[in-house]
Amino acid sequence: MDPFSSAFVAALELIASLDPNLLEVIGLSLRVSLTALALACLIGLPLGALLAVVRFPGRGAVVVLVSALMGLPPVVVGLVVYVTFSASGPLGPLQLLYTPTVMVVAQAILVTPIVAALARQVIADLNVEYDETLRSMGTSGRMTIATLVWDARYSLLTAALAGLGRALAEVGAVMIVGGNINHVTRMMTTAIALETSRGDLSMAMALGIILIALTIAINGAVMAVRNGMERRAYG
Amino acid sequence: MVRTTATILKPILAAGALLALAAAPAVAQADSIIVQSTTSTQNSGLYDFILPQFQATTGIEARVVAVGTGQALTNAANCDGDVVVVHARPAEEEFVANGYGTERHDLMYNDFIIVGPSADPADVASAPDVATALSRIAEAEAPFASRADNSGTHMREMALWEATDADPVAASGTWYRETGSGMGATLNIAVGMDAYALTDRGTWISFENKGDLEILFQGDPALNNQYGVIPVNPEHCPNVRAEGAQAFTDWLLSDDGQAAIAAYRVQGEQLFFPNAQ
After folding, report:
1. Fewest CB atoms less than 10 Å from the CB: which of A9, A234, B147, B254?
2. Residues of A with CB below 8 A from B197's CB?
3. Domain co-membership, B104 together with B129
């Protein structure tokens, strides 16, 4: 059997067997990446809105910086977070290295600029439409931001999905700060890297197929919910 | 501006709360230790076989971070591990001499081998010793994949080249290919480019993507591969879980631990030979 078919067979067998190790690895991937995304949205959405609406000196430079940070190399983020949380680093006393928590931190750093930059663009576009109305109503700055974020919520879902995609796919940062410890910090991507280094390419590909299928399922589910909500809102 | 500060502050506070929530299940367990380890012991499946026995005996969960020997020792020197299992004696002795580890113990051994394409263009299979084998590869300018990652295997490879007249690093990028990757990744690359490579036997036996590569040279005493275990020194690292690390070391060196290592087999072959004193 060629490597592609054997990988597909292995993937199907893995899924069918509901292998507890596989479920554990998938569970950790989802838990870490979704928590990182939630953090990134909490910081990135208001930040993006602020950059879209509020004028201040140096705003252009901040906008450039935030979009440039979308391209943060995961391995560099992993290194910086490792040095920060290492026992000999400034946050060493927290003893968080090699735990899922520090993996969340690393991924949140990677995802926040993506959410912020995309949210800024979406909200800035919407603000062009809304600006006069909101101004004539004398809406406060905070209310303006809240209104814009709320009305842009469907487009902002795409920003969130982009961020989630980055988090689920990334291996460089979580490998360094999580250590790929079996049953503790092993995620889908680090498990794939491990199987590759064991030379078990069909298992590695099978895990890859499952990861991609999972990402498609999440995107499909979010799109379906979004379409349903949109129909109800504007229907 | 006050308002905008509040808009910014609130999510950051919420983010902190969320992080605390995520952290809750990850609070370090008192009965777990971090093992900074070389990759071969993990990639070969040895830990999956012996660690459950260790946990059943002592109740301690050993969490393995598998990196190259050089990185394992660096991480441990940064106090990010409680015990190390590595295979580069000079580096291990330096680690202890620097006060980072308490004491180095012989744990087990196997050997390094040279693998390469079955056609063996440099004719290393007939070489009388490993220095000749490597010299022939250099003379033939046959592709050779080197770890080049400061791992135990890479340190040994460099020492073996020292004993020849060849200067492989000067040829880097031509026939000498520095992968900068782990053993498995380097073997994958060697398979892809029909290159020779130095590997430990444990990783080789359990490696599942051998392609056209086979063992071409083995048996020189200079290829002995000794593994050592070193608890991290609590005087250097006050945060170290010294009791757990010592229990781990004691168990590995005990009759039970040594028997567990000897009992591990892949495809009927014993991978590691215990030799604790």
Report:
1. A234
2. none
3. no
CATH architecture of A21-200: Orthogonal Bundle (1.10)
B interface test, pick of A24, A98, A103, A194 with most B CB neighbours within 10 Å: A98
Q: Is residue B22 a part of any domain in this protein?
A: no
CB contact under 8 A, A104 and B184: no
Chain A residues with CB under 8 Å of B9 CB are none
- B121 and B195, same domain (yes or no): yes
pLDDT (0 to 100) of residue B147? 95
- Same domain as B174, residue B41: no
Q: Does A233 touch chain B (CB under 8 A)?
A: no
| Parent domain of B230 | 30-109+225-274
Q: Is residue B6 part of a domain?
A: no
Q: Residue A199 is nearest to which of B22, B66, B187, comparing CB atoms? A: B187
Instruction: Give yes or no for residue B16 having a pLDDT over 80.
Output: no
Alpha-carbon gap, residue B275 to B199, rounded angstroms: 21
- pTM (predicted TM-score): 0.88
Determine, for residues B63 and A105 on separate chains, whether the beta-carbon distance falls below 8 Å. Answer: no
Could you give the number of structural domains in chain B?
2
Task: Give the DSSP letter of residue B195.
Answer: -
Indicate the Cα dihedral angle A219, A221, A227, A230, nearest 10°: -100
- Closest of B274, B268, B267, B266 to residue B44, by C-alpha: B266
Task: Judge if B117 and B85 occupy the same domain.
Answer: no
Contacts of B209 (CB under 8 A, 6+ apart): A199, A200, A201, B187, B188, B191
Tell me the mean pLDDT in the region B259-272.
95
Could you tell me if B218 and B238 lie in one domain? no
DSSP assignment letter at A96: -
| Residue A34 near chain B (CB below 8 Å) | no
Q: Does A97 touch chain B if contact means CB atoms closer than 8 Å?
A: yes
Q: What is the pLDDT of residue A18?
A: 83
Task: Give A93-121 pLDDT, tens digit per residue.
Answer: 999 999 999 999 999 999 999 999 999 99
| CATH code for the domain in which residue B159 is found | 3.40.190.10
Predicted pLDDT at A179: 95
Exposed, middle or buried by CB within 10 Å (0-12, 13-18, 19+), for B24? exposed
Q: Which residue do the tokens 């026992």 mark?
A: A87
Choose from A197, A201, A203, A205 for mutation: most chain B CBs within 10 A: A197
Domain ranges of chain A: 21-200
The pLDDT of residue B273: 97
Same domain (yes/no): B104, B123: no
What residues of A are in contact with residue B76 (Cβ under 8 Å)?
none
Q: Write the DSSP symbol of residue B168.
A: G
- Are B122 and B62 contained in the same domain? no
Phi, psi of B210 (to 5 degrees): -70, -20
